[in-house]
Structures are given as C-alpha cells and as structure tokens.
Design goal:
Layout lengths: L6 E9 L9 H18 L5 E5 H7 L6 H19 L3 E6 L7 E3 L2 E3 L11 H20 L9 E4 L8 H9 L4 E3 L6 E2 L4 E2 L12 E2 L2 E5 L7 E3 L3 E2 L3 H17 L14 H4 L19 E2 L1 E2 L4 H16 L7 E7 L8 H14 L4 E4 L1 H10 L12
Parallel strand pairs: 1-2, 1-16, 1-17, 2-3, 3-6, 6-7, 7-12, 15-16
Antiparallel strand pairs: 4-5, 8-9, 10-11, 13-14
Helix pairs in contact: 1-3, 1-9, 8-9
C-alpha cells in the first residue's frame, strides 16, 4: 500500500471581477480560468474555483441590458465547463454586491466588504440564494453536486456567530480565509490573535480566531502566513513597480476617465495593515496571480519548511490563494510555479481539491485541531 503524502496542496481560486464592480466576465474570469485549467491538466494538478455568486445574482437582475446578458451566460457556461473538466467548484461571496445598482453601464456597489457585518437577514438570504443558484446550475448535469466549502470575499468573517449558524444549516463544512496577523479596522476585521496559524481547526462559533474545545460542524483552514526576508520583499516591490511599465495594459475601459469617481475611489480595504517593524516587516500568505516565478518559489519553499517542523500531524494542507483576475501577463510564472511544486516536491506533496480534502477531514477528525490539545 502506498503511504499517503504528508502535504496536500489546495489551490483555491477566488473567481471574480474587480472588488469595485469593474471588469468583464470574459476578460477577468473566463479566459484566465481556461488558462489555469489547461496549466493544471498539464501537471496533473487540481484547482478549486471559489465562484463569486453574489456577482452573478446581480447580473441576473439586469438581463434587459445586452452586455449584462452575455456576461451572465459566459459566467454560467464557464462554471459548467469547470465541472465538465473535473475541477472543483465551491462558494465565494463578495457582500458588497448586496443592493448594487446599475447605471449607464456601470455597477455601483456598497462599501461593506465583510459578510460578517451584514444584517443577519441579508446574510441568510445571500448565502441561501447563492447556494440554490449554484446547485441548481450544476445539478442539471451533475446531480451529485453540493456546496461544502466557503471563502468570504476580502477575508471578512467577523462577527462569526450568525455566519457559523448559517454554515451549519447549509452543510458547509470547510471555511477558508483567515490568516494570522491580518487586520482591517474599517471592515471590523482582526485576525491578529488567531490561536492556530497552520493547521485545520474547529473554531469557536462565537469567535473564529479561537479554537473550540470540542468537535464542531465547521472546520477552518487558515491561509498559512509568509514573511518574506528584506531582499525578497525589496525584489517583490521592484517587480510590482516595473510591471506597470513593462507589461501590456488591459483593455482601456478599466481605467478610462469616463468611469465615475465614486467607483474608482471605492477601496474599503485601504487601511488593511501591511507592514510592521522588524527584519520581516511584511506579512502575507501563499498566492498566485501577479507575482514572479522566483518570488513564488521562495514563498512556497519557506512555508513548506515551516510546516515540516510541525510534528505528529499528517496530511497538512498547504493553501494557495489564487486570483485569476490578476493573471494578465503572468501566465508563464504561474505555469512555472505549478510545475516547480509538481517536480521538486513530488515525493511529499500531492494536489487535491477542497471537496476531496473536506471528505478526508470528515473521515479522520484527528487531522483537525481541537482546543487545549498538545501542539
């Protein structure tokens, strides 16, 4: 019998347009998702597409507009294509779409990006309607499909009490997004005191930063932190700055002066803490999108080395956040990174998807941390 590998790489893609409502489904969602699927197939990798259904619910309210109607159709057909090609599809929600209006070809969104801050009735309606939409769409061809995992837009899950109740009600078993050290006062988001930074854990329903003392219905998979050294950080900043001049720009309407100032200036995460004092001043997590291949390799090498030092725990997830909307000009970096993981770490790492890993956690609860246990 083959021994199971120690680490499980979970690539979860936040499949969405821009947070302020700008962008087109064809450009920011369909084309990069198609490329990611092709790359993943070449290296026998798996991807879970966390699809922002809140956006699609709003598109469905404005189908009299021909452009919106086309984007709605592309959205539906792309999600079906994901499943037809064997990829996982789960639920992602950006709650700023609640109550969005559509004027002169632009969507105007709200400034609350944390679903935990929504009115409980709005939470209930958004989650229920989104699950119904996604399951109705996919069960036409995949009768066994069900939603079991959730990723909050902008990582917002606080306060958590009512959200946890909704997750239990809808059989959502895995929630992703929190990362130790993350804080955004404007959105009442504070993960600086998380009790578990690396392992799946059962959360206290009233405070997801705390580990429950008993087995719960929901498991949190945290985004493991990565603190680049000063050289890596300096190179990262340099590459991001030069990218503005080196690479081709997107379609001009993304940055057109005709876009209302109200949309262009919408950035409720602007006060999110990014830097701190010390030799490693910047804290982030594993992610692919608009990063160079050397940075991606270094980040993965560093995180997996940290995880190797966690004794007595098998099948640890390595969660990688992906944003296909940011893939523009970085497809070679992304393919190189997935190839690097598949080749260098073949002996200890395997790719999986969130639904499959959710089943593993259900079958073996010892993989999930409970409060007060030895670490």
């Amino acid at each position: 019998m083959t021994t199971k590998k120690k680490f499980v790489v979970l690539i979860e893609d936040d499949w969405e347009i821009m947070g302020n409502g700008l962008g087109n489904v064809a450009d920011l969602q369909y084309l990069p998702a198609l490329a990611l699927m092709n790359i993943a197939d070449r290296y026998n990798a798996k991807v879970t597409f966390m699809v922002d259904v809140a956006h699609q619910l709003v598109l469905n309210q404005h189908l009299s507009h021909p452009d919106v109607r086309i984007q709605k159709t592309i959205w539906d057909e792309t999600v079906l294509l994901m499943k037809e090609r064997g990829f996982d599809v789960q639920l992602h929600l950006h709650c700023q779409w609640i109550g969005a209006s559509f004027e002169a070809g632009h969507f105007f969104l709200g400034n609350n990006w944390n679903v935990g801050r929504c009115d409980p009735a709005d939470q209930q309606r958004l989650i229920s309607d989104s699950i119904d939409y996604l399951q109705s769409l996919l069960r036409t061809r995949f009768p066994e499909y069900s939603v079991c995992a959730f990723k909050a837009g902008s990582w917002g899950l606080q306060p958590s009490t009512n959200l946890m109740s909704e997750f239990r009600k809808h059989n959502i078993r895995v929630v992703m997004g929190p990362r130790i050290g993350m804080k955004c006062p404007a959105q009442s988001l504070d993960y600086t005191q998380m009790e578990e930074a690396y392992r799946p854990y059962y959360p206290n329903p009233d405070d997801i930063t705390k580990v429950s003392t008993k087995q719960e219905d929901v498991v949190i998979i945290p985004l493991q932190p990565y603190d680049p050294d000063l050289f890596t950080l300096s190179k990262y900043i340099y590459d991001r700055t030069m990218a503005k001049y080196r690479y081709k720009k997107r379609f001009p309407f993304y940055h057109s002066t005709s876009i209302p100032q109200k949309i262009r200036k919408l950035n409720p995460l602007k006060d999110k803490n990014l830097f701190r004092l010390g030799m490693r001043p910047y804290r982030t997590h594993l992610k692919i999108g608009n990063c160079t291949l050397p940075y991606l390799k270094k980040s993965f090498d560093t995180v997996i080395q940290t995880l190797r030092d966690i004794d007595g725990v098998g099948r640890l997830p390595i969660l990688i956040e992906s944003h296909t909307k940011n893939f523009h000009n970085h497809y070679d970096d992304i393919e190189g990174f997935i190839a690097y993981i598949a080749e260098k770490y073949e002996s200890e790492v395997e790719f999986s998807d969130v639904t499959s890993y959710c089943r593993e956690l259900h079958d073996d609860p010892s993989m999930v941390r409970v409060g007060n246990e030895d670490r």
